[in-house]
Amino acid sequence: MYFNGTAQVNEKGHLQIGGVDTLDLVSQFGTPLYVYDVALIRERARGFKETFDKLGVKAQVAYASKAFSTIAMVQLVEEEGLSLDVVSAGELYTALAADFPVERIHFHGNNKSREELEMALDKGIGCIVVDNLYELQLLERVCGEKNQKANILLRVTPGIEAHTHDYILTGQEDSKFGFDLQNGQAEAALQNALNSQAFEVLGIHCHIGSQIFETTGFILAAQKIFEKLNDWKQRLSFEPAVLNLGGGFGIRYTNEDEPIAASQYVEDIITEVKNLAQHYDMKMPEIWIEPGRSLVGDAGTTLYKIGSRKEVPDVRKYLAVDGGMSDNIRPALYQAKYEAVLAGRPLEKANEVVSIAGKCCESGDMLIWDLPLPESDDNDVLAVFCTGAYGYSMANNYNRLPRPPVVFVENGEAQLVVRRETLDDLIRLDLSIQTKIKN
């Protein structure tokens, strides 16, 4: 079994994370439970940031908070000296509640509302990543009304398709995101932005996809962007101060995945951008990247209590757990794959193959198909690895299931950073119908 970060087997034979026995965590906080290995998050963050520092390249590493956004997580990002990528008023509000430095906040999104843009300007955030012409025009009006100037990046789609799941491709030409680099949309947006008194155009942004295990896509995207930048330099006298190549750096979920080190992504990107800037006789831009999943994905583990068992003779054995698509919708949404062990017996030899079912009233609520496990019962706890990205952030209350709590573990200590929702929380926003008064 592959263990991430500080995960190991302790002297009791139990799975331990951050120096804390996972069965002790279950006794204290119950199940389902999200557990985050803080030391691993710090290691991942430093792997990106220190490579830029070592190579003497000006950069910003902005955590993509859509992967997992809570006050405690934002505070951890600030401790590690990263910037922050937000995509909604809610994520921005969370960052502000965590006292995150506003100058290091970048606001993304393909349909920012007037209210969100006003909030961003009022709070003085560092950069708005403009996604389309509608937004460019709306932001210009809002800046005019407030007599403010906005720092912006223009998001472009360079036409590069990453080798990943179709649902999470974002850099190809047919995308809901960004200005197309090839058909003139990006140039028209750039001309409008440069001619406006409302904007300081910092540079260009792109994002080519997710779960990428090589640097080829980033290199090709940089090449396409620099070809266009060279043209814009000659005709529009524009050179970017910033080139943001997005995120999408892959992690290991199962033995089918072969990610590369954070430092390798950074080194290859820096090398290519330096070569391109020199080739086109352009100033070396500041490089921004946006890791999300690669910072928190394999740092998260979800603990479940095993419940019912069902066997269909000569077909399949099902084990049900007390969570499912309400706390991890990725298997249903993306057919995502995971590995898991019994937390109390992680090294015991498997003697059966089971499929892990969630408790939601949906036949598609399956967390793992065909998982080798030792024989288990309802006294056992299942630990599902690499659930740190898009688990809590996409959690929902389907079937009116309360969302699980979140615990940070580090150096033998556990800290509750999100409490478990209660049944009262589920109805807190509900209103009763008004009884009509009969005449």
UniProtKB/TrEMBL annotation:
The keyword Oxidoreductase does not apply. It is an enzyme of class 4 (lyase). One of its GO terms (biological process) is lysine biosynthetic process via diaminopimelate. Its cofactor is pyridoxal 5'-phosphate. InterPro entries: Ala_racemase/Decarboxylase_C (IPR009006), DAP_deCOOHase_LysA (IPR002986), De-COase2_C (IPR022643), De-COase2_CS (IPR022657), De-COase2_N (IPR022644), De-COase2_pyr-phos_BS (IPR022653), Orn/DAP/Arg_de-COase (IPR000183), PLP-binding_barrel (IPR029066). Keywords: Amino-acid biosynthesis, Decarboxylase, Lyase, Lysine biosynthesis, Pyridoxal phosphate. Specifically catalyzes the decarboxylation of meso-diaminopimelate (meso-DAP) to L-lysine. Belongs to the Orn/Lys/Arg decarboxylase class-II family. LysA subfamily. This is Diaminopimelate decarboxylase. It comes from Bacillus mesophilum. The lineage of its organism: Bacteria, Bacillati, Bacillota, Bacilli, Bacillales.
